Amino acid sequence: MPEDNGIIRDETGAQTLLGYIVDISDGDGKGRCHLDIGPQHGNRHGMLHGGVISCLLDNAMGYAASLTGDPEGQTKFLTVSMSTNYIGAAPQGMRVTATGTVRGGGKSTVFVDGELHDTEGRLLATGTGVYKRIRGQ
Fold it and tell me: Which DSSP symbol is given to 108?
């Protein structure tokens, strides 16, 4: 459940382990995940690991999907498919934000686009995902 007016911390084990914050506070139907990059998030080159990038995009897009059924993001969705395109690198010490935006869909399936930017506004990665609503909540 959203805490602090749409800021969600430690909701899942993955979120707690990686240390990102979910933000659905804007009321614009977009899901956002913020991460301050530490040494634990890096690849062997000292840049943000691609797996962490995919995780951030998946969560931001999944939260955007969940907002289609409930303004507090409580509608549950599962990722059906997802693709990630890596465009730039982000070093340790920088904050990145993944944003998910719903592009279409219906009652059970939602199509979402995602973007990951650094604090300077540079586009680092994009993603697309298909999310399926879990029935019988």
Answer: S
Q: What is the pTM of this model?
A: 0.93
Residues 62-110 have pLDDT tens digits of: 999 999 977 777 789 999 999 999 999 999 999 999 999 999 998 899 9
Strands (E), the chain: 7-8, 21-23, 31-36, 77-86, 95-105, 109-118, 123-133
Question: What single letter denotes the amino acid at residue 97?
Answer: T
- Cα radius of gyration (the chain): 14
Question: What is d(CA 94, CA 38) in angstroms, rounded to the nearest whole number?
Answer: 8
Q: Which CA distances in Å does 69 have to 19, 54, 92, 99?
A: 26, 24, 36, 18
Q: Report all structural domains of the chain as residue ranges with CATH numbers, in order of start.
A: 7-133 (3.10.129.10)
Find the helix or strand (DSSP H, E) in which 59 lies: helix 50-66
